[in-house]
Design brief:
The protein is mostly helical. The chain has 18 helices and two strands. It is extended and about 95 Å long.
């Protein structure tokens, strides 16, 4: 360290110059602080950007499907109302300290659709009532048996009833409609039986639990049915209708994409993605259809749906649509195969294949119109006949193809080599066309079965006659 001093009037000036080591230490500390600050800034910015993206997705979902946002508001309203039983002293004294069971009931049983909410409410009420009644009965029998046999009787009853109720959940009919009720039965019976061994006022405990559950379930039912109800029957009806339209668009788009001439590669890729998304949505809708059909059976008559609406027929129609979707998936794989058919064959078959796919799509769209308007169609039979005529024409072309001689291009020769190898090459060239044609014929056959299922649904659901509907529209037009 260098020091310099200067005396002037009794004053002394000193200058301390730090060495190089100290300077390096200061620079390194400043750099480390800058890195830490930059790292913290990056974490905060990244966290805020993720929150912003999440909020954007949530907003887009609320705009795209406002029913889900309204459902959140309904749950909030129901919880706010039921919480009054815990905050207000008169209501709290009426239900006792078990008011929290009403809040838990609302949280557990409030579902998106009316049918799902009714299903859970009824299951919870029935399961709680049966379990409470049996628990009180077992408690009375145990008290009559004396203190020695009391715990034994309670333990045996818990074991037998819990085992039987758990096994019943594996039965298909019970699992489909009363699975939640069986679980609530096990929970309530175990609580009542076990707590009854130490609690003297067991009847009051069971009464308070039943009353709070009745309050919670009643509030959920009223809220979900009065404020913007979402009916499971409507959701199932619209789902089947949309699946028909998706199948029609996927079928027509897949065939046109293969036989049509599209020079724009980007638009071709977009069309292929749209085709695949259409039939894949139909393939993945089985669980949703079954759940909605189950919940729709719990709903009362609403709109155009009667109390005993044939919801099982919707499942049959949905199953037939999935069979068509499986064929379209195979058709999509065949059109994207690496083996290319000759251009001459594609041009020769394009007329018949596109005609069959177009007529099949028209039938599917007419089926969607029947479902959407819930009226019987007067032209569906004519459209099916046109589709069958297109099938016969395509079958005739396939038969004529099998009778044609083997023709080779000038580049490969015309039979100068081995005849068996020439035949094998020719078979490989016609395989894609034959596969696509066969799949189109199979799809038409499955669509015809779908039309039969739609007609059966229309008869059981008592759809309006198309002639009456057309006359009403004509009268409205004439009056206007």
């Amino acid at each position: 360290m260098v020091k310099e001093s200067k005396q002037s009037g009794g004053l002394e000036w000193r200058i301390n110059v730090p060495n190089e080591t100290a300077a390096k230490v200061l620079v390194s500390e400043s750099k480390s602080q800058i890195r830490v600050c930059n790292g913290l800034r990056g974490l905060i910015v990244g966290f805020m950007s993720r929150i912003w993206k999440f909020l954007q997705k949530a907003w887009s979902l609320a705009v795209r499907e406002p029913k889900k946002a309204i459902h959140g508001v309904k749950v909030g309203v129901a919880l706010s109302i039921v919480s009054l039983f815990y905050y207000m002293r008169p209501l709290y004294d009426g239900v006792g300290g078990n008011a929290m069971w009403a809040v838990m009931t609302v949280v557990v049983v409030f579902e998106y659709t009316v049918g799902a909410t009714l299903c859970k409410c009824v299951n919870r009420a029935i399961g709680t009532f049966l379990a409470g009644a049996l628990g009180l009965g077992v408690h009375w029998i145990a008290n009559q048996s004396g203190e020695k046999f009391k715990p034994i009787i309670i333990e045996v009853s818990v074991f037998l009833l819990a085992a039987a109720a758990t096994f019943s959940r594996f039965i298909p009919t019970i699992k489909a409609r009363f699975d939640y009720g069986a679980m609530i039965f096990i929970l309530t019976f175990s609580l009542v039986s076990v707590s009854g061994y130490r609690v003297d006022e067991l009847f009051e405990l069971a009464h308070d639990r039943l009353s709070t559950i009745a309050i919670g379930t009643s509030l959920c039912i009223l809220t979900t049915m009065i404020f913007c109800p979402v009916w499971a029957g409507n959701e199932l009806h619209y789902l089947i209708t949309n699946n028909m339209e998706k199948i029609a668009d996927s079928l027509n788009g897949c065939v046109v994409e293969y036989f049509g001439i599209n020079e724009n590669v980007n638009s071709k890729d977009e069309a292929s993605d749209k085709v695949s998304q259409g039939y894949k949505c139909v393939l993945n809708s089985k669980a949703t259809e079954e759940a909605m059909a189950n919940f729709a059976r719990w709903e009362p008559a609403h709109g155009r749906f009667n109390f005993r609406h044939p919801w099982n027929e919707y499942l049959k129609v949905g199953a037939l649509l999935r069979k068509c979707a499986y064929c379209i998936e195979t058709l999509n794989v065949s059109t994207n195969s690496d083996t290319e058919a000759p251009v001459i064959l594609k041009k020769h078959f394009s007329k018949y294949c596109i005609g069959l796919s177009s007529s099949s799509s028209d039938v599917l769209k007419e089926m969607a119109v029947i479902m959407n308007t819930m009226t019987k169609s007067t032209k569906i039979d004519l459209m099916v006949n046109e589709m069958n005529d297109a099938v016969q024409e395509l079958q005739g072309v396939l038969k004529s193809l099998s009778k044609q001689p083997i023709i080779r291009d000038s580049k490969n020769g015309t039979g100068g080599g081995n005849k068996s190898s020439t035949t094998m090459v020719r078979v490989m060239e016609i395989v894609p066309i034959v596969s696509i044609s066969t799949l189109l014929i199979e799809i038409a056959a499955r669509i015809e079965k779908g039309v039969e299922a739609i007609n059966e649904l229309a008869n059981k659901a008592e759809f309006e006659e198309g002639t009456k509907k057309s006359k009403q529209s004509e009268n409205q037009q004439n009056s206007s």
